[in-house]
Design a protein that fits this description.
- There is one protein chain.
- By secondary structure, this protein is mainly β.
- It is built from 2 helices and 7 strands.
- The chain has one domain.
- Strands 1, 2, 3, 4, 5, 6 and 7 form a 7-stranded antiparallel sheet that branches.
Length: 108
C-alpha cells in the first residue's frame, strides 16, 4: 500500500520510495488501531521538502464501490513518519485495505 501511494509522480517521491526498506513501525496510534507511527533507520535518503501529508489522495472503497475511508501517508523533516487510516463510519477498521480497494490521485 505504501509502495502504491509512493509510486505516484510528485516532488520527493523517489527519495520517499527509497526509504521503504529502512522503515519500521514504532507505535500504534491506539490499541487495535491500524494507524501507526514509523521511523526511518539511518542510511535512507532524505526527501527535501517532504513534511506533512504526502500529496496523494488514497481513497478506500468497499467491494461494492462505496467510499469508506482514506489512507494518509505522513512525512516529517523529509522522512516517512506515519500511516493513517481515516475511516468514514462508526466502527474503525481492524486491518489495512487491500491495494485493489484504494483509488490513487496526486493532488495538484
Amino acid at each position: 500500500m505504501v509502495e502504491l501511494i509512493l509510486a505516484q509522480g510528485f516532488p520527493g517521491a523517489a527519495e520517499l520510495r527509497a526509504q521503504i526498506d529502512f522503515v519500521e513501525v514504532v507505535a500504534q496510534w491506539a490499541e487495535g488501531s491500524v494507524s501507526v507511527d514509523l521511523r526511518v533507520r539511518e542510511g535512507a535518503p532524505r526527501s527535501a521538502g517532504a513534511s506533512g501529508v504526502i500529496p496523494v489522495d488514497a481513497t478506500v472503497v468497499d467491494t461494492s464501490g462505496s467510499l469508506i475511508g482514506e489512507i494518509l501517508l505522513w512525512a516529517t523533516d523529509g522522512y516517512l513518519s506515519a500511516i493513517e487510516y481515516a475511516w468514514y463510519g462508526d466502527e474503525p477498521p481492524s486491518v489495512l485495505p487491500e491495494p485493489g480497494l484504494i483509488a490513487i490521485e496526486v493532488r495538484s
